[in-house]
Amino acid sequence: MAHDEDDLLAKLTRFSEGVAPPFAQADTTDATTDGTGDANGTGDMNDTNVADDGAGFDVDEFLHGLDAIFARHEAATKAEPYLLDAMDLAENAGDLPGLLTVLNETMGFYRSQSRHKDNQWIIQRAIELALRLGLEGTEAWATTLINAATSQRAAGNYEQAEELYRQALDCADHVYDADDRRLAALHNNLSMLYGETDRPAQAVAELREALAILEHGSPDPDTDVDVASTCANLALALLAEATAGDNDADTTSAALDEARACASRALAIYRAADAEGSAHYASALATAAQVAFACGDFTGAVARYERALAIIGACYGEHTDYYRVTEANLGKAREALRAAGASAGEAAANARDENPQSAGMAGSGTTNDATGSGAAGTMTQASEASSSTAPSDAAASPRRSGLQLARDFWLAYGRPMLEERYPDYVGRIAAGLVGPGSECFGFDDALSEDHDFGARFCLWLTDDDYARIGEQLQRDYEALPREFDGVTRSATTPRASGGGRRDGVFPIGGFFTALTGYASAPGADEPHRWMMLDEATLANATNGRVFADPFGAFSKARQSFRMMPDDVRLAWISRRLGMIAQAGQYNVPRMLARGDGAAAWLCIDEFTMAVSSLVFLLNNPVTVGYAPYYKWRFAALRALSRRAGMRLAGVCDELEALLRRSSAACFGGAGFGEGGSGAAPHIEAVERTIEAICAQIVEELQRQGLTDSDADFLEWQRPYVEAHIHDPSPCLHSL
Hints:
The protein is mostly helical. The protein has four domains: 1-176, Serine Threonine Protein Phosphatase 5, Tetratricopeptide repeat; 190-398, Serine Threonine Protein Phosphatase 5, Tetratricopeptide repeat (Alpha Horseshoe), CATH 1.25.40; 402-562, no CATH class; 566-732. It is 61% helix and 3% strand. Strands 5-2-1-6 form a four-stranded mixed beta sheet, with helices on both faces. A hairpin with a 2-residue loop joins β3 (483-484) and β4. α7 runs antiparallel to α8 and α7 (181-196) runs parallel beside α16. The longest helix is centred in the last third of the chain and has 29 residues, at 566-594. Residues 1-55, 342-398 and 670-677 have low confidence and may be disordered. Keywords: Repeat, TPR repeat. Residues 20-49, 345-399 are annotated as: Disordered. Residues 530-632 form the DUF4037 domain.
């Protein structure tokens, strides 16, 4: 989905009714889920500057003007200046409540742009201002806490987010009625945090609470689409709980049964509400398909994915991320169905039996608003986001990932050992698995178990704590079992031994120094140091999972490597554009024309590496991480391309098609099974694919406001991108 999946409480971005003016001056019924205002509103301002007629700060006019910017799709270039001007005007006018309104809107905008580092001071300022205004215990206070918590969750600052959500819940329990849908949405938000931090049981508990609130307050739960959306979310959370890997067979079976029941109930509600043509129903169908896949019902999964795809095509079109992801999921379900020996005819018959009018309904939906309004829109977003992931492989294979194995080992042996032997330090030690190794990226499989694999984790201490207990703690760690839950540690290679060891006890600074050369990330005023790092290094320093970090020091250091200064990111983007132009647009055709297939192949490799890197950079590493080294580059790119809302999501498939064509283009098909047709048609296809990818890159640069040029040769786009770099350091600029 192109919308911000994190904002489940869009209606709370602006202060709700019942709060003293000027907080309640805006109509909140059409607030969008990107947390930045009403993108469907027309506004009444032709200028994008906040009016300053000497009469003070007008909150209503500010909100209408912001809505108008989004309605004209000018947010990328005009929203931030407008918001910053509004801050100055409100502050100069002495309108502190109005300033708080602006800060809340700015939080939503920066979050939607993945500007998480810039958002930190906005969050802090908003909370401090709300306290200064004496708003504790009011709906306005709950609103500010929710916005701040959601922003911190989007930034990956989960501990801060959880604390803020907890404070918001404490406040909401007093200021909201027991069946207020905003309270249900808040529980839904907290469930997302638990899901993202690998706590499925807590996620399920929060969704049960949300569902109880909605059912109690609904005039007709059997036709209430908010209830349906929450049922779909609960089904996905139960599915995650069932496949967590630490359940017995009876617990897993019960969770899967309940997930199936929740998914079926969601579909029944949409049918009863006559809402089967809506995009939200497509999300519920995709959820039901994912549950069916996990339960081994591949026929049911295919049927539901097919119906979901038809509705998505009608509502969004076939060139959207939502359509592509669902189509990929359908392909995976069909493969599983074929492998199970079932027929496609059974799938079609199942679809007709369950809903013989579904094909007609898909084309006649009246709801085209993907965000919805009110609680319906806010809650459905989680279902859309979760069901857009690829079907779980749990039903096909019981193998646990290395990260899950590590977490289970930590819970079984690591945490009890710390609590027993290091009670004074347990609140200061971080645990997790980060660094080199396929399991740290989540890409491990059975082939990965031949070396450097097993139940393992890392413990990270401050330098002072490490000096006191590090050596003894390392001995205690090494004394933990080498075999855990049927998995024995495989042979350790020399590169993972000694100073290159991948688990055990580390000082925080030493751990990151071994990976990157720096104890913490260089500062924004040290661009030359950032430019000496490479993506694979940064990927190793920021991957994996942190199981516990009560002190927060490790997470802070790890996050610092994610927070690449934007000037550096733009410089990297410029360099990638240069390589794409030189290797792909310029040298591939020249080398092919010379008949030097080997050189052309190397040019295609350089082009592919540069494009794949650019996809991560344009989606912003603070949100999606960094491209790993070549071995896992495509695994990471495929995973990124499946995520909802990602830019250039279709490029991955095009790069793979390019590589498949390359053998015939470079070597005329000889020895590669292309039928001896010669290189000419394949050369044409390769060059056409390269130009198509470059055209998409230009469109994305324009969309992000990085260029206003239509130049198709990407070298010519570099000056436009570099014009946005504020730091004059020579290392950030091309010659």
